[in-house]
Amino acid sequence: MSETADLELVHLSKRYGTTTAVDAIDLRVPGGSYCCLLGPSGCGKTSTLRMIAGHERASDGDILLGGRNITHLSAAERGTAMMFQSYALFPHLNALDNVAFSLRMRGMPKAQRHARAMELLALVAMEAYAQRKPAELSGGQQQRVALARALATEPRVLLLDEPLSALDPFLRVKMRAELKRWQKELGFTFVHVTHSQEEAMALADKVVLMNGGRIEQEGPPHDVFNAPRTEFVARFLGSHNVLEVGGAVVAVRADKTRLWRSTPGRTCLRAQVRAVEYQGTYVLVTLLRERLDGGAGGHAMPDEITAMLHEAEFYARPWQPGETAWVSWDDAHALQETRLAA
């Protein structure tokens, strides 16, 4: 097993002509942790991953791994390995030879490299499929082979480019649990690019939310979700309402939002129910805000509000589109910045 090492990005930038894809970001990923780079398309997360891997040249800044500057080293010299979104398995090679390929390129004897490849296939529960070619494997099985191949060089950091995006929803949930388990068992540092908030929250020790080439916020998933720093973070993570109350802009979790048929006697907003969606354990109610608050001092500011109501609470007296509701909340977090996007 490789020794764990901190990964550090220091004022790292990437420009394509006059376009800045990554804008002088600073980031430290502790060795042996699972870090997810999260954000919308074009936010710079994949460019960042490719610079760490050595597949893109940094325009400015440095990349350090265990205190060693790897910014200008080739991909093979860095101590990193990349697991691509497409898995990039060789179609003419079976699973065993796909995993053993990098060991073959290093000159390892056939018997030795095949023994090592079988160990890695066993790690991901694929030893029974060693002789099958990629076309004979399911998407989840191909992913396991790709992971085993990436681990063959014993990297200090494993880089994953949206590895679950090609899988169906059921398999995606199953495979993300296995990714987390493998990361803990191996002790490697994983850096995982995704646009899925749910995926990042489930996997990461550290979430890094990017927007417009910059880091909007980073930290443990629980901290980022419960204390978003900006309007962009609150809205992108979902399950948050961004409201202006008493001159302040606050984020309110949808599951902390309450609906009333009359004024509840505390700070509230008046809204009209627009849509109702049954989600299984809860019902999602979407409303259009009519007033800032219930008093005469309120002013018109149409905006969408969502409330997640437990199904038992909702069906005790269901809300219907067109009904007027008074909206209150149990908790609110003041935002430091209200810019939406770069």
From TrEMBL:
Name the chain's protein: Fe3+/spermidine/putrescine ABC transporter ATP-binding protein
Enumerate the UniProt keywords alphabetically. ATP-binding, Cell membrane, Membrane, Nucleotide-binding, Transport
- Record's Gene Ontology CC terms? ATP-binding cassette (ABC) transporter complex
The record, for SUPFAM superfamilies, names:
MOP-like, P-loop containing nucleoside triphosphate hydrolases
Write down the species: Caldimonas thermodepolymerans
Please give one Pfam family short name.
Answer: ABC_tran
Q: Which GO terms describe its molecular function?
A: ATP binding; ATP hydrolysis activity; transmembrane transporter activity
Check the record and name the PANTHER family matching this protein. SPERMIDINE/PUTRESCINE IMPORT ATP-BINDING PROTEIN POTA, SPERMIDINE_PUTRESCINE IMPORT ATP-BINDING PROTEIN POTA
Q: Where is the ABC transporter domain?
A: 7-237
Q: Which GO terms describe its biological process?
A: quaternary ammonium group transport
